[in-house]
Design brief:
5-stranded parallel β-sheet; 315 residues; alpha/beta; 7-stranded mixed β-sheet
Length: 315
């Protein structure tokens, strides 16, 4: 499904602002990757909608070099300021999709951005919902990827659960396939900037999902039952695993799989930090980010026909 956008992907790449590397995520892994890449001579953009789970950490006492505890918020501020000082461009925006077609185009709420290589550093994926019974129908009518599974609902009625830009993006993918697309905000207002009139908006609270041994059949809401053929979960923002599924990146259903240099099975695409599993610690994320940043720099140099980059120590 990497090239599912066809000519649309080519047009977006032509209109998008160009970088050598785009990092999705501004946590320890993403910023570390950006720092190593920019010091290797790459033009780097780091994108994130928010500051992630580390922003809520009150005290960090086990990170090398800090005699006194530091809050997650302060650590993030220092990392981002360091990256900006070195020349990394940063953007506060929600990523709604990624297109791979002779390079990467990252679609965001602030426009499209293109690069030769991409690093996913979005933290631990959060894909489960609190809707009773919905998780029981995964693979039986419940999906997390419109690009991957939309084809199976041609001419049918589907619901997209979510109330943000990502939900609208998923619904837009499905409207060309399904006979009916309903965005279920689950009792919340729609927070996206706009939606297509072809798509229904239902703000009822979802109480539970029902079905049989074969598949999901309906969502029970505060306004009564809603019969559906499929449900696509698009709560919050696109996670690293959501993007991996759309691009066909190898994963185990929970985390992205990489080699020793943080390279995925898709050339030019790397992943670092909590989204790759393992020990979920700042120190590990920083180290993986460094490896990913250097590996991305090496990938760009090969594309340009140059030599492998060497990290700049000091100065």
């Amino acid at each position: 499904c990497q090239k599912s956008h066809g000519n649309q992907g080519e047009n977006m790449t032509q209109d998008a602002k160009q970088y050598d590397l785009i990092v999705i995520g501004q946590g320890p892994a993403g910023i570390s990757a950006a720092i190593y890449a920019v010091r290797s001579g790459l033009r780097v953009l780091a994108i994130a909608r928010d500051r992630g789970s580390l922003d809520k950490a009150d005290k960090i006492e086990n990170y090398y070099g800090f005699v006194d505890p530091i809050s997650g918020n302060d650590l993030l501020d220092r990392g981002i300021a360091q990256a900006q000082r070195l020349g990394v461009d940063t953007l506060a925006a929600e990523v709604t999709g990624v297109v791979w077609l002779e390079g990467f185009t990252v679609e965001t709420t602030q426009g499209d951005y293109a690069a030769s290589t991409l690093i996913l550093a979005l933290g631990m994926p959060r894909r489960k919902t609190s809707i009773k019974g919905l998780d029981d129908f995964e693979g039986r009518g419940v999906s997390y990827c419109a690009t991957c599974d939309g084809f199976f609902y041609r001419g049918k009625s589907v619901a997209v659960v979510g109330n943000g830009e990502y939900a609208v993006k998923e619904a837009s993918e499905l409207k060309h396939i399904a006979a009916e697309v309903i965005i279920m905000t689950n009792g919340r207002p729609l927070e996206a900037s706009g939606s297509d009139p072809q798509m229904r908006i239902n703000q009822s609270k979802i109480l539970k999902a029902e079905g049989d041994e074969d598949k999901i059949r309906r969502l029970i809401t505060t306004d009564g039952p809603l019969e559906v053929d499929g449900v696509f979960v698009a709560e919050g923002t696109a996670s690293a695993l959501d993007l991996a599924l759309k691009l066909g990146i190898e994963n185990d259903g929970k985390v992205i799989l990489t080699d020793a240099n943080q390279q995925t099975n898709l050339p030019g695409l790397f992943a670092a930090g909590d989204c790759t599993g393992g020990l979920l610690q700042v120190a590990v994320a920083v180290g993986e980010g460094a490896k990913a940043g250097m590996a991305a720099a090496g990938f760009v140099r090969k594309l340009q026909g140059g030599r492998e980059p060497t990290v700049q120590w000091g100065g």
